[in-house]
Amino acid sequence: MLVYLRVFKESFAFAINALRNNKLRTFLSLLGVTVGIFSIIAVLAAVDSLDRNIKESLSGIDSNTIYLTHFSFGPSEIPRWVRDNFEPLQYDDYEFVKKNVSGIDAVAYSIFGSNETVRYQSESAENVTIVPASQGISKINDFKISKGRFYTELESNSGSPVVVLGYSLAETLFDNTNPIGKKIRIYGRKLTVIGVLDKIGVSFGDSPDDQAVIPVNFVRSLINTGKNGLPGAIVIKPKKGIDVDAFESVLKQKFRGYRGLKADEVEDFFISKVSGFVSLIDGIISGMNLIGWIISFFSLLVGGFGIANIMFVSVKERTNLIGIQKSLGAKNRFILLQFLFEAIILAVVGGLVGLGLVGLIAVISSSFTGDFEFVLSFKNMAIGFGLSTFIGLISGVIPAISASRLDPVEAIRTGM
């Protein structure tokens, strides 16, 4: 056992010495592996970070939450020209669902696509996403209030001029001033701030921190929500423990009857679940990971070929030394380990440099992107370290074997 440890130690020392004596060659070999490891780990870290931030932004929403819309969130077999003629969902549709479909924990009618400038005295915030929604949206999205309160069912139904601000929007308009009771201007109308949402941070799409939530009936009195207006949707949160598939079937059947659709007619509406949306995201993330691996494979291939080429050159240059070592009693395994360690050290150091660069970029990116956290996970670091070691092993094994099999007399004669 001690003999093998000495062989490993001496082989490692020879490899380090060889790398130190050929600094330019070592640097160029490191560069190839560094680029390869950097490429693949950067892609994996970026995709993982995107996936994590999306999942965290949806964590407050029940995965069984259902969106009833006249448009599809994903691919559809129904032709586009047919979908374009579907009747948008109106407030009356929401009232029908609320009164006639059982098993509902919370339901809301919401309008999409309203971006406005929000003003308070001399302060203003442009292109703010306005979320006109009935009172149930608070329970569905699990809104947490940091100041004030959310609007009531009565205020929602009557269209009261009140507003609940996202955390960042409130800071932009009021800085350190308490916004509760202050009047801001949206749609050219004055609304009273009655609440501020807790800071959510990460988000997929527009962050609730930058939004303003107002009673949907207030907006309906100002903006057209019909076929040529802003689209609306009914958001439904089924009761816990309910059979969601059965609930969806009942909802579809009742809404078909409400719309007067015959048995052979296609639905002029779509029922989408958050869980289906998450599955769609998982599919996209998997595709992005696959593309990242394919692109990075070629970078790793170049790095591996670079190390193999350098090792063959190294064997050629040190043929005479190999012959002398073997003539003095050096075993084949000592020569093999010497060159194998050299290749592995090159690859591992290059991989560590690549990981370091990804970590540095992760820190810098996170500081510039604010709420989006770019994370280099332990899993990705392990993948990077493992890949770099594997590349070194594969790239160095053939040159190392060829060096260990050299005949000492021929090696000395060739090197002279």
From TrEMBL:
The chain crosses the membrane at residues 27-47, 290-313, 334-362, 382-403. It is found in: Cell membrane. Its main location: membrane. Residues 26-253 form the MacB-like periplasmic core domain. InterPro entries: ABC3_permease_C (IPR003838), MacB_PCD (IPR025857), Macrolide_Exporter_MacB (IPR050250). It is a multi-pass membrane protein. The keyword Membrane applies. Residues 293-408 form the ABC3 transporter permease C-terminal domain. It comes from the Bacteria. Keywords: Cell membrane, Membrane, Transmembrane, Transmembrane helix. The keyword Cytoplasm does not apply. Belongs to the ABC-4 integral membrane protein family. This is ABC transporter permease. The lineage of its organism: Bacteria, Pseudomonadati, Bacteroidota, Flavobacteriia, Flavobacteriales.
